[in-house]
Design goal:
- The protein is mainly β and 145 residues long.
- The protein has 2 domains: 8-69 and 125-140, Chitinase A, domain 3 (Roll); 73-120, Thrombin, subunit H.
- It has one helix spanning 43-49, and strands at 8-16, 22-25, 32-35, 57-62, 76-80, 94-98, 104-112, 116-120, 130-140.
- The strands form 2 sheets. Strands 1, 2, 3, 4 and 9 form a 5-stranded antiparallel β-sheet that branches.
- Strand 6 (94-98) and strand 7 form a beta hairpin.
- It is elongated and about 60 Å long.
- The model has no long low-confidence stretch (mean pLDDT 94).
Length: 145
């Protein structure tokens, strides 16, 4: 059996950026299990795993367009310092809030000015090429729709 649309796939992976820094890994922990073709993982990784077999390993490079997207300049917002918790008025601070629908929203401080703070609502991996070292641990026939 190979990785194909509708199959339930379990993988072991390590995610690195261009500088080889490890961003995430599940090696030695629970495998990541997803249904192939369902959009549960970034599209570039999904494409890279197509037709692989149990036990196969491979490096998959995913460009920003097939990962977390390019950096969106409209996703930056400048707010008054008073709207930010005092301990978070520093570059690199990560904040969590809610949108109008009550869904969680994550942002990070990218600039602190005299009266305001600039927030970046882009995904932290937006604009980055992702390098996955992946091993297929298991493939099962997926549920019949």
């Amino acid at each position: 059996m190979t990785v194909s649309s509708g199959t339930k796939v379990s993988i072991e992976y390590t995610l690195r950026l261009e500088d080889k820094a490890v961003i995430d890994t599940n090696v030695g922990a629970e495998p990541l299990t997803y249904v192939h073709g369902s959009g549960q993982i970034v599209s570039g990784l999904e494409k890279g795993l197509e037709e692989m077999k149990i036990g196969e390993s491979k490096e998959v490079a995913v460009n920003p367009e097939e990962g977390y997207g390019p950096v969106n300049l409209e996703a930056y917002m400048e707010v008054e310092k008073g709207e930010i918790p005092p301990g978070a008025v520093r570059v690199g601070a990560q904040l969590e809030g809610q949108d109008d629908g009550g869904r969680p929203v994550y942002t990070r401080v990218v600039e602190v000015k005299d009266q305001t703070v600039v927030l970046d609502f882009n995904h932290p991996l937006a604009g980055k090429t992702l390098h996955f070292d992946v091993k297929i641990l298991d493939i099962q026939q997926g549920p019949v729709a």
